[in-house]
Amino acid sequence: MSHSTPPHRPPAGSTDSAAGGDGDAARLASLGYTQELRRSLNILGNIAMGFAVVSPVVALYAVSMIGTMIAGPAWIWALPVVLAGQCLVVNVYSELTSQWPLAGGPYQWGRRLIGPRFGWLSGWVWQFAVMFGNTTVAYLAAPWVFALTGVTPSPGAMVAVSMAVVLLCALVNAYGINLLKWFVSAGIAGEAIASVLVGLSLLLFFRKHPFSLFTHTFGAEALSGGSVPLALLTVLAVAGWAFIGFDACVSTAEETKDAGRQVPRAMWWALLSVGAVVILNAAAVAISYPHTATAVAGKDVDPVTTAVVTSFGSWSDKPFVLVVLVSFLACAMASQGGAARGLYSLARDDVFPFSRQVRKVNKQQAPIGGLIASPLVSGVALLLGLNATAIGSLIAFGTAATFVPFFLVSAAALIARLRGTWVPGGHIRQGRKGTVLNVVAVAWTGFEVTNVAWPRAVLAPPGAPWYQIWAAPLGVAVVLGAGTVYLMARRPQDRLPAQAETDAAGAADRLPTLPATEPQP
Fold this sequence. Notes:
single chain, 65% helix, globular, 521 residues, disordered N terminus, mainly alpha
């Protein structure tokens, strides 16, 4: 099919959980699509996808050193704040995916809530954020390959290994969701066990400081002009990186059994479990690190490994490096799979460049077109790694661009609620409570988009050029601008009948008689 057909409401009393896959296929057909991907994931498999992309190890390494340099040990208080904010986003996503369990969530939901133009632009921004995020994960994984081998890498070698990581992830994904699930599940099992055991051991047996450590900044606020509030605002932006990726559960919705019920639950489990592990390990590393002032001064580029090796002994160095590398690979595989499925969702509606090629599915029922297109974009972006300043700009942009779809989806849901054009019609319906939480979610995501994108010299290397300091707002502006130009020139929204995008518009009397529940972690 070259584009979607107008979706229809399922008959009253129908559910996703009919025997076998027929109920899921019928639900998908009612939304205008045929079942092309292999629907074989249970809730644990779907949780694995979200857990791998959020990844406690990747999250900790992404934010721990920078957070400590900006606000000292007190930076970890940003983690529960950001986790609570992201729970508000998951709450909105849960209602939406319960009603529309489709790959490419921001695109699919946006066009149904507001209209084709809004939905397409939301999907465009989200898609590039994920693809450039894959670039970041692959580039950050490369040093651990060299750490395992003991080789000092050159910039060219870093890029070459990063591209090899991207290619490996694409090959695993190409063999279908079952092989991907096996690799990701094995990776996160090792990661989760190692993370929890290491974190608890550091807290219980290798503690070098009292818990009052977390009330001190060690003068780190000097980087923010001596202002503790400004330092804490900055670490809220940095900590945002630690709790993104749960939407990978949505990306595999069309491969998950009873998706309308299980995907919302999987998102909650993925976010809350990762959140608990990240906070545990952040506290454990800080309290077991031997010389806090050294980390605050930025003289140790890897305080996490230092804390582990000085506590457990030198024998733990290589095993710990291996655990970290496996965590990065699992994250990269799941994230790349999510990117490919987002491309597939856009391309099957014929609203993305080269849709005919990108929408193809192979014999393993994997979105092979997206698995070729996404690594190509990520691979080209990796060439920026030949210049450390440029790759830093890409990382800054990727973080900001990831929060933009969170804001757009939350805002679209709230606008549709207030207009009366959307009444949640899936298994999760929260009524007035949902509206109130939606308002707070919009406030949170709007704040965090601004906070993350705010140009800060403190987050750039000393002497960095102006465009790296402004990389986040400039990058978001470029992607939005390119999308707007494509939207005006090619008018992809015209291929989607506007009436078809509001199949639930203001229709409380048309809601199926499904039991209403709230998401349970």
